[in-house]
Amino acid sequence: MRTSTLPYCLLLPAFLLTSAAQGQSKKNLYHKGWIDFNKDGKKDVFEDATQPVERRVADLLSQMTLEEKTCQTATLYGYGRVLKDKMPTPEWKNMVWKDGIANIDEELNGLAYHPGAATEFSYPFSKHATAINDVQKWFVEETRLGIPVDFTNEGIHGLCHDRATPLPAPIGIGSTWNKALVRQAGATVGREAKALGYTNVYAPILDPARDQRWGRVVECYGENPFHIAELGKQMVLGIQEQGVASTLKHYAVYSVPKGGRDGDVRTDPHVAPREMHQLYLYPFRRVVQEAKPMGVMSSYNDWDGQPVTGSHYFLTELLREKFGFDGYVVSDSEAVEFLFTKHHVADTYKQAVKQAIEAGLNVRTNFTMPEVYIMPLRELVKEGSVSMKTLDQRVADVLRVKFRLGLFDQPYTSNPKAADKAVHTPADEAFSLQLNRETMVLLKNEKNLLPLDAKALKSVLVTGPMAAEKNYTTSRYGPSNNPVTTVLDGIKNYLGAKATVHYAKGCDIVDASWPESEIIPTPLTTEEQASIDEAVAQARQADVVIAVVGEDEKRVGESLSRTGLGLPGRQLQLLQALQATGKPVVMVLVNGQPLTINWENRYVPAILEAWFPGPQSGRVIAETLFGDNNPGGKLPITFPKSTGQIEYNFPFKVSSQAGQPSAGPNGYGKTSINGALYPFGFGLSYTTFEYGNLVVNQPSQHAHADVQVTVEVTNTGKRLGDEVVQLYLKDKVSSVTTYEFDLRGFERVRLQPGEKKTIRFTLHPDDLALLDKNMNWTVEPGEFEVLLGSSSEDIRLRKSFTVQAE
């Protein structure tokens, strides 16, 4: 690559050097080391890269008209969503964005499952980078002030772009408990975004998935706020290290709509103030303070009667003044409209606009034209209902991020052709494969049925509705059009000529009357019985049965909350019929949320949780079943035995998830099913691990001191394996009721057979803090207990220390 003495941010892409020669007016914009955005023939303060960001923001803001300011408060959704043109047209001079726009979302990304968004500009990658440059060039050259656009895109499953590097679903990423891999995942997303012309990625999701019925569990890292904060921090750091903004989702208290209901509901979380701060705001506070993301997305739900997007308390007092957020807030789609149409806290949409901008919203996003928001906002300012000072503050936040991203120094992708070799490289594919491997969680392995011995098998039956399914590998919020290896094909490819692989679907994912069939059972149809019978007949001839069951992309996800959590459709009947043959059955779960697989857990000898892997799912699952990949993932969310137990999760308040007394003056009995099916942090391995020599550096500490903890872990089995060492902390006596104990550290460690490693943890004062009676975070004196183990219920070692009174 040719080097230059000029800083990267001041180099101009080659296409500009050519186009600048086409007209004197355009040529005069581009100078050595600066761009004349406002076209006044001189280097203004905001155009000078050597000036402090705040001076540049103030200078640009002072030059902006009301029209230009209001245009920096709205999103334009990209081609196929709202924007009708793939490329700028003369008509753009008559559109509202003739005065600029804050951001353009999902522009030319070839969005999955949306044929209307298909475009020839999404691939090859260099073509997209060039196209984004051309759109950016229009805003720089054809608007009065030339304010560059922030090109935003989704990124929770990998960058939401045609053929970008795919990642497993976030619930799978959460199951890795691997901070280094998540940091690398963020770096991959950020690097690909940068190469393709995107400047802002909507990731990660930091919502704790506390209700297993909620459809978006699949898109969360899990249920525990500490675990989410640790992984979310790494994702943000990885993205932003590539010079791209990370925008957190969904702030705040979004993931527990009443009863777990999503769809048309999405409101009324029943969360007490203390729990809101300790559970739902904790990941946002930590990640904002420790990783400094440039974006936050405000959610469309309410809390305690306050719709978040219209709440000064949430968007300003908490987010900016207490947490220290200094980026810009973009609304989730339709969140502003909901203030009027759903929450009814505004009597007109115009009043909803007023509430949102005064609360602290910077940029409104929805699948409608941006002028729907911009025009009422202009009216509000002209009437004096919204002050110019407020508008200036909101616009300054947006401009500040654009300056921090370097858009006023280098608004273009400098080398579009390089994208072809920078996106979804062989190294990226290998990384994605490893990340998928580490998502695998072994839930049951009776008599060490797994791993299967390929040499001992002659005939294998692969059955179940998920065996040949592909759609779960491609998310609306991730890459599209990558080639998919189904589980069936993965097993065939793995075994090759070693064994004969037979296939029978067995049943569909759901039956004709599902989900009503969950509450009103219907008999099997003739066709359904015949399909199960076919699978049973083939099972009798096989050495082992691999049943791939669960949910697909249409059964779990956004707006797809469930009322039951059993395997949908006829899948349980299929498993029962297969088990009755007496052949060994291995169950592979492909799903997006915990399922109440009680019969399956009791009677099926081996169960592998695969979640929603990426397009390499078949290869990864085959490698795991046959032992090339030793599953080392752990559950980031509790599996309840029944929906009647919900909410049932970790952490929990003292005795809040206890059973029933067997005797006593206040009642006793046996009326409920108690305990978790699989607890938080659970996961088996093909090898075994032993814990020893737990050391806490000092038995007595000051409240403001760190606590050092070490523990030795040994692989006592015969296979290479990963263990996730989990540190929990218990506050023995406190001024307010706290959680029974909570996660405060974890490390995934790889050990050869017989290998021993020392794992080190540092507990910070924040890890010991609680919200006292006055709702202040404080570390109280007293005794704390450190618990080390392999899950929240498999505690191997304990040791106490004391925090001294000041």
From TrEMBL:
SMART domains: Fn3_like (SM01217). Pfam families: Fn3-like, Glyco_hydro_3, Glyco_hydro_3_C. InterPro entries: BXL, Fn3-like, GH, Glyco_hydro_3_C, Glyco_hydro_3_C_sf, Glyco_hydro_3_N, Glyco_hydro_3_N_sf, Ig-like_fold. Residues 723-792 form the Fibronectin type III-like domain. The keyword Hydrolase applies. It comes from the Bacteria. Keywords: Hydrolase, Signal. GO terms for molecular function: alpha-L-arabinofuranosidase activity; beta-glucosidase activity; xylan 1,4-beta-xylosidase activity. Belongs to the glycosyl hydrolase 3 family. This is Beta-glucosidase. It comes from Hymenobacter wooponensis.
